[in-house]
Request: fold
Amino acid sequence: MNSQVKHNDLHHVSVELTAEEALALTGVRFNGNPKVKAAARQKVRDAFEKTFDFSHQDKVDYELLK
Reply:
């Protein structure tokens, strides 16, 4: 995952998760509901997309050097 964040420029990402979603991200498996982990990961992904600029990700490396 590439982003244009400088090392000295700290960003905080806040995500509201249910207790089950938080546990699923730590590795706990919910055999009765395997969608718990997928929902938690989607929430985290959405928060990152709102916080960081990923627009250059689709470009080829040599296009970034122009």
Residues 35-51 form the longest helix (17 residues). The helical segments are 19-26, 35-51, 61-64. The radius of gyration is 16 Å. The mean pLDDT is 78.
